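Severity: low
Component: inverse-folding endpoint
Summary: output formatting inconsistent between runs
Steps to reproduce: submit the following structure tokens with default settings.
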């Protein structure tokens, strides 16, 4: 694999087939990491991007204020991301301080340790109800029947989304997470459907507020507009809609992939599966969830960044406005930071993994994601002791995108 680490000026990417990052990502990242700290590759949108591979460089870059999330700082024509309307695009993944600080402050209270811990019992009930529905059959697609519906249930309950409105949400989300290049109209229709969904949901919450996070955010927005906002915090209407969109999307996608990848890892490591079953209840497998997130996490790449000025990363000068991709997957298996990084072992105490990010953009929902994964795995291990893969490993299919590391399906039997 050709090293492009000494390239210091913009130019066309070296021939690099990004399919290797789909087919065998950890081997591909290991080769890139060994070849150099920074590489010029085609990004997810097909445009040139700078890929950062080593732990120390990735960690520093995640917290570097010179690397902006605001797409307006991208060079014209250099970046082509999701084409979202303003009402869905004004979210935390496109914001820098002070807007990022203001908006994040308003929603952080929903994910405090105490509030998240109070959700453990509702999450456990949701997990048991899903397992009740499939257990008699003796087999199921664990993504469709469990790892997907569980986080949707949890985040929809948190936001107060009525049961009747949840049916189509997963299909819309999937169309955006991994768009089909041969059917671009599907993703476009999903965007339109989501915009109508969130606009209608907010309108209904204004008419009939509930005891939920979205109603609280609407109250903050409307009170601030009326002059009653506290502490100078404000939400525009687009920011309100975009925040609901981001919470639902991120709360579904990443947790689904975290659970699915963790279950597959357990099926690939039977001794570990037996060991974790002996550690129940959920608190006993908390360290294992951290290791699953490090070893094969749901987000191989952090959200793209754009340098506000020429920035040196790993000895390479990255010009202002170009796209920077920080590889969390590569950093989390960097032998320069982790001992035996390819080994899956929850007792290693691998502190400092970057699966949930680092710095001011650290994953807002990480405490809830951890709780959901712990609870989902504990319920599965306790209720389905003979769990096994129901197809050959070579038949497994993953999302066709380097943005996410997740299974399309996971057929299992017990």
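Observed output (run 2 of 3):
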């Amino acid at each position: 694999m050709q090293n492009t680490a000494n390239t210091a000026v913009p130019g066309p990417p070296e021939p690099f087939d990004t399919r290797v990052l789909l087919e065998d990502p950890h081997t591909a990242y290991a080769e890139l990491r060994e070849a150099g700290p920074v590489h010029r590759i085609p990004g997810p949108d097909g445009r040139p991007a700078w890929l950062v591979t080593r732990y120390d460089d990735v960690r520093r870059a995640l917290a570097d204020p010179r690397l902006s999330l605001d797409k307006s700082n991208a060079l014209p024509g250099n970046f082509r991301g999701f084409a979202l309307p303003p009402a869905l695009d004004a979210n935390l993944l496109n914001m820098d301080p002070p807007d990022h600080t203001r908006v994040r402050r308003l929603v952080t209270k929903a994910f405090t340790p105490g509030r998240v811990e109070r959700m453990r019992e509702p999450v456990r009930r949701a997990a048991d109800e899903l397992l009740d529905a499939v257990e008699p059959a003796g087999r199921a697609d664990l993504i469709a029947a469990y790892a997907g519906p569980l986080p949707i249930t949890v985040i929809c309950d948190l936001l107060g989304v009525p049961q009747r409105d949840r049916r189509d949400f997963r299909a819309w989300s999937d169309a955006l997470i991994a768009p089909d290049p041969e059917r671009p109209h599907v993703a476009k229709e999903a965007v339109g459907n989501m915009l109508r969904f969130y606009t209608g949901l907010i309108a209904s919450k204004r008419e009939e507020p509930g005891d939920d996070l979205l109603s609280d955010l609407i109250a903050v927005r409307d009170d601030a507009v009326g002059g009653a906002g506290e502490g100078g915090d404000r939400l525009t209407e687009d920011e309100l809609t975009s925040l609901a969109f981001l919470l639902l999307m991120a709360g579904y996608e990443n947790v689904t992939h975290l659970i699915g990848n963790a279950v597959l890892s357990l099926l690939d490591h039977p001794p570990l599966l037996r060991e974790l079953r002996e550690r129940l209840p959920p608190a006993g497998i908390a360290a294992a969830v951290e290791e699953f997130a490090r070893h094969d996490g749901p987000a191989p790449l952090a959200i793209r960044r754009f340098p506000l000025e020429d920035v040196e990363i790993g000895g390479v000068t990255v010009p202002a406005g170009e796209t920077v991709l920080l590889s969390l997957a590569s950093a989390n298996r960097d032998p320069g930071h982790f001992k035996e990084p390819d080994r899956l072992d929850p007792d290693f105490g691998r502190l400092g993994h970057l699966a949930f990010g680092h710095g001011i953009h650290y994953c807002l929902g990480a405490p809830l994601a951890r709780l959901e994964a712990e609870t989902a795995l504990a319920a599965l291990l306790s209720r389905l002791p003979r769990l096994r893969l129901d197809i050959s490993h070579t038949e497994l299919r993953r999302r066709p995108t380097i943005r996410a590391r997740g299974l399309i399906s996971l057929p299992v039997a017990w």
